[in-house]
Amino acid sequence: MITADYHTHTAYSEDSETSPEAMVKRAVALGLKTLCITDHMDYLFPEKYAPETFVFDPRAYFKQLLSLREAYRGRLEIRIGVELGLRSEPDVRTACIGHCKKLAASYPFDFIIGSTHVLEHTDPYYPEYWESHSAAEGMQTYFESILESTENYNMFQVCGHLDYLVRYLPQETKNGEKVPRDYCFADYKELIGKILKKLIESGRGIEVNTAAYKYGLPFAHPRTEILKLYKQLGGEILTIGSDAHATEHMAHGFARAEEMLCSLGFRYYTVYRERTPAFLPLG
Ligand SMILES: [Zn+2]
Ligand SMILES: [Zn+2]
Fold first, then answer.
1. CA of 214 to the centre of ligand 2 (A)
2. For 126-172, how does the pLDDT look when each residue is reduced to its tens digit (9 = 90+)?
3. How far apart are CA 249 and CA 263, in angstroms?
4. b/e code 240-251 from CB counts within 10 Å (16+ = b)
5. 255-281: per-residue pLDDT in tens?
6. At what angle do helices 224-232 and 254-263 cross, to 10 degrees?
7. How much is the mean pLDDT over the chain?
8. CA of 113 to the centre of ligand 1 (A)
9. Which of 50, 91, 99, 273 is the most buried (most CB within 10 A)?
10. Could you give the CA distance from residue 231 to residue 263 in angstroms, rounded to a whole number?
11. CA-CA distances (angstroms) from residue 30 to 217, 249, 263?
12. From the CA of 15, which ligand is nearest?
């Protein structure tokens, strides 16, 4: 049984209204041993989305989470993480790297996820992005951006939700029926292979993000073919995260993910403390 959820959000993230303590209580009720809270820090989030900024006050964050860690000692291991939004656009990249480096050096995070949420100054979650990009262009731009950020940002431990853009691809219909959102792995295999090799050779890994199941996708992020390729290339570091923004989604799909990982031959998943990995058995 997977007993550690390594990707969760609380009200420190602008897209969650759940208190850290509510998440902690739910983790205990679910029988988890470890909860890593990883709120959003998306420096330089495009101004057109103001007042949304997706940054929090790290001092307040540490103060509250450290006190919860003490209060729940013996019942739940609380790890303090962050999900950094990585930007690759040439005009913001250097500044974004600077902010991320400074944060990582200034606070004792246990775990840092590096995620790509913005492409060409636009959040592809919104239909606006797709007015000027085809699905194939979007996926290509997304993976290229991740490759570049994997090379340029070195402060994160795992690459977040590697193919999550598939969730937001334009909805197509056939004979009046919605066609499930998908993309062709073979078209991006070479590019994805470069990302995975770069992560592996630098001692970093990927996460299995089970929020994909919630979106009705037939796979987690990243999809099974990517996990197979990761294994072939020698990848071993795999954290498991629900990306829950509310208590009811915590540890969602973990049994399904565990079965899938075991069927691919993975024997361990990864947890981090003080940014140092440890491995726990699967199955
Ligand atoms: Zn994310
Ligand atoms: Zn997240």
1. 13
2. 999 999 999 999 999 999 999 999 999 999 999 999 999 999 999 88
3. 24
4. bbbbbbebebbb
5. 999 999 999 999 999 999 999 999 999
6. 50
7. 97
8. 9
9. 99
10. 12
11. 24, 11, 25
12. 2
> Which residue range forms the structural domain that includes residue 147?
4-281
- CA 8 to ligand 2 centroid distance, Å: 6
Q: Number of folded domains in the chain?
A: 1
**Residue 44 backbone class (left: φ over 0; alpha: ψ -120 to 50; beta: rest):** left
CA 89 to ligand 2 center in whole angstroms = 21
Q: What is the CATH number of the domain that holds 102?
A: 3.20.20.140
